[in-house]
Amino acid sequence: MGSETAILEYNGKRYELPVVTGSENEKAIDITALRQQSGLITYDPAFGNTGACASAITFIDGEKGILRYRGYPIEQLAERAEFIEVAYLLIFGELPSPEELTGFRDRLNHSSLIHEDMHHFFTGVPSTAHPMAILSTMVASLSGFYPVPDELDFDAEYEILANLISQVRTLAAFSYKMKIGEPMVYPSYKFRYVANFLNMMFSSPVHKYEIDDEVVRALEVFLILHADHEQNCSTSSVRIAGSSLANIYAIASAGISALWGRRHGGANQQVIEMLTDIHQNGDTAQGYVDRAKDKKTRLMGFGHRVYKNYDPRAKVMRDLCHKLLPRLEMAKDPLFAVAMQLEEIAMQDAYFIERNLYPNVDFYSGLVLRAIGIPTDMFTVLFTIGRMPGWLAHWREMIHDEGFRIARPRQLYVGETERSFFQRGNAPHYRHVKMPAREVKRL
Ligand code: ACO
Question: Which residues have CB under 6 Å of ligand 1?
Answer without folding.
Answer: 263-265, 267, 292, 295, 298-305, 355, 357, 360-362
